[in-house]
Known about the structure:
The chain is an alpha/beta fold. It is 30% helix and 19% strand. It contains 16 helices and 24 strands. It has helices at residues 10-21, 74-87, 148-153, 182-191, 220-223, 226-230, 240-244, 249-267, 269-272, 295-301, 352-358, 390-405, 414-432, 446-456, 463-471, 482-490; strands at residues 2-6, 25-29, 94-95, 98-107, 110-117, 122-127, 129-132, 139-140, 157-160, 174-178, 197-202, 208-209, 212-213, 217-218, 289-290, 304-308, 312-318, 321-326, 331-333, 336-339, 343-344, 367-368, 372-373, 379-381. A hairpin with a 3-residue loop joins strand 13 and strand 14.
Amino acid sequence: MRIAIIGAGFAGLATAKxxxxxxxxxxxxxxxxxxxxxxxRTRRYPGVTTQSPKAQYSLSDFPMPKSYxxxxxxxxxxxxxxxxxxxxxxxxxxxxxxxxxxxxPAGDSRWTxxxxxxxGAESVETFDRLVVANGVFCEPLVPAYPGLEEFTAAGGRLRxxxxxxxxxEARDQHVLVVGxxxxxxxxxxxxxxVAAGTxxxxxxxxxxxxxxxxxxxxxxxxxxxxxxxxLFRYLRLRGLEKFLHGPGDGLRRRMINSIGSVSVRQFGLAxxxxxxxxHMEDIVRGAIGLASEGFFEGVADGSIIVHRxxxxxxxxxxxxxxxxxxxxGSTHRADLVLCATGFTQGVPFLPEETRQRLLDERxxxxxxxxxxxxxxxxxxxxxYNSSFFSPLNAEMAALWIAADLAKAVALPDPEAMRRAxxxxxxxxxxxxxxxxxxxxxxxxxxxHNVDEVLGDLDLNIGATVxxxxxLGAVNPAAYRRMxxxxxxxxxxxxxxxxxxxxxxxxxxSVSGNKEVPFDLR
Length: 521
């Protein structure tokens, strides 16, 4: 088939690689000049690094170089993805500097895609299927503050953090950073050494996890394990989870909240007045944030000032220059306001009728397994499952798409799929207090999603390796044989496996991490 993919980030590239290997002709469209999605040079803000360590943020069959630091920079991640493209021969599939203006159903599950290139050249092509991989962090959400016109006339600038690429732009400027997630704290730490003033406007404080808990234990050994995931109650409990959320509930709570206690002591949050409300267990209701290096140190030395439980109520032209008024009535000089206030999960290129069929009455995406929309033939989504292991989740979703294209996924009937999606959204509403990004965030249930996706394919790593991931950090390299196993199964010359078995080699021994060298010069 001819497959169109919108987006050249992790999800789009992983899908292109798997579908190309499955024998499909693929085109990947992205309006950026380079691959990478959120890691593109057009979207990287100063100080950005991965939130997960490099091993956990790698694709299964292409680990990041040993020379990379534990938490790679944005530029390093982009270089890694460019090398992934070269390694698997995807260059000819890419259509960069090309924006998808519209994608419309063309009958018989096909899609007509209208694009516009950098020079304004327009093109119309029809594809057999369409994969939307534009990402849940695609379009930044910038609040509509009153007074913007007079603020701008006074020389003030309002930008999304992802539109801010050079810390030097903040030199000698009074900067207000709006937000308290990782991107807000990253930016604040990066500019605090050059800005005349760095103020963080935090509507709500979030719990921050140290990279090294207690100064020595990598946080991945506590939270990026199956045990760490099991500490949070999932829709369906299994195995040890039944104990943790039953007789062992007290132990489970102490395990989670002890991380919060360590964070308070390690960062001196009580002295800084930055202890979040609630408990560390509440991170699932908002967003877990890896502490940005230098952020709390900047607060301690006064180069960063955090205004907790505050919002900007309006922008204005102050007596001394552009300014912002906060919800407590105070006014602060603001030459530059950087908004790290989240993203909109949108698909503006799809027809209104299609968008209405994709969403429920609250605007949540109705996607079975976070992949398949209900009642929209020939359309798939990938990357709409933001997680601690986003590359791995996207890669396994690509396998699911490849299998479904080959009619090798035993799908429930449409009504059963709808019930499953509604049930999942209702559960995430309760688990995250509706903070699930319109149904596109699955944190902290990353590996549950992987297991469900591979379970549909009757394909998974062995029980022994899965067991090792209960106490050790999940290693995406353990899944590196999943693609060749699936492709072998889908090959026409191969006999179909018996139900309940992959019919192929066992995967219990798959746990290593083969280094794939490449030149990043």
